[in-house]
Amino acid sequence: MTQGNPPQSETEPQPGHDRQTRAAAQPTADGESICYRVLTAVAEATGTAPTDLAPLSETVEPDALEQLFTPTGTETSQSAAGSVAFRYEGCIVTVYADGRVTVEHAES
What we know:
The chain has 108 residues and is of the alpha+beta class. Helix content is 19%, strand content 20%.
């Protein structure tokens, strides 16, 4: 995973990011949903406003994604393991059990 300069705005695509991988969303303790982190990470990586993205539900089942990676009462995000990856908006999105979301532009 590479880290670059943050985008100048959410709607300006970044040069050369057609092959770039970004750690676009990190685990948070403020209660952000996993689906929200996916949408904002993809929006940042593609230079698209979140409201202009296709509905996430056309690609994955949002409730299942939330249930899969929401810590239970006895489990913390640091003790969870696993990941799920899917294609969305021309990208490969990977959601990790610890809450990280990475976005990589898919090669055609």
